[in-house]
Every structure is written in structure tokens, then in C-alpha cells.
Amino acid sequence: MSEHRSALSGRTYRRLDTASKLGGLALVAGALEVGPTTAAGVTLVVIGATFATTTVFIDNS
Fold first, then answer.
1. Could you count the other beta carbons within 10 Å of the beta carbon of residue 3?
2. How confident is the model over 4-59, as pLDDT tens digits?
3. Which of 12, 29, 46, 56 is disulfide-compatible with 8, CB 3.0–4.6 A?
4. In 3-state terms, what secondary structure has residue 60?
5. Where residue 2 falls among pLDDT bands split at 50, 70, 90?
6. What is the pTM assigned to this prediction?
7. Residue 37 and residue 23: Cα distance in Å, rounded?
8. What φ, ψ does residue 60 adopt, rounded to 5°?
9. Nearest to residue 21, comparing CAs of 43, 48, 60?
10. Which of 22, 21, 44, 23 is nearest to 32 (CA)?
């Protein structure tokens, strides 16, 4: 199997990074509305935190 890694331009990386951070923030805000101690709230927090840190693992060159 060959490993294929696509590199993003600096501009595209910044846009994707900003969009994922805002999306993650929106999910965490939704969790606060639902209630962070409920199962749905905890799920939204975990998904939001994961989504907000996703672009850290994309190769930027």
C-alpha cells in the first residue's frame, strides 16, 4: 500500500484551521446549552474538542 499525503497551501491550511476551530467551538457551545453533565452534552464536548484540534495533524508544507 502506498501512503498518499496531500500538502495544503498556507492559505488553505489557515482557512481550514479557522473553520475547524469555529466548528469545534460551536459544538462545545451547543453542549453547554444541552447541559454538560448529560450524555448528549458530554458527546458534543468530545466531538467539539476533537474537531477543533483536527488540523493539528494535517501536514502543512
1. 4
2. 556 778 788 888 888 989 999 999 999 999 988 899 999 999 999 998 888 666 65
3. 12
4. strand
5. very low
6. 0.72
7. 21
8. -105, 120
9. 48
10. 44
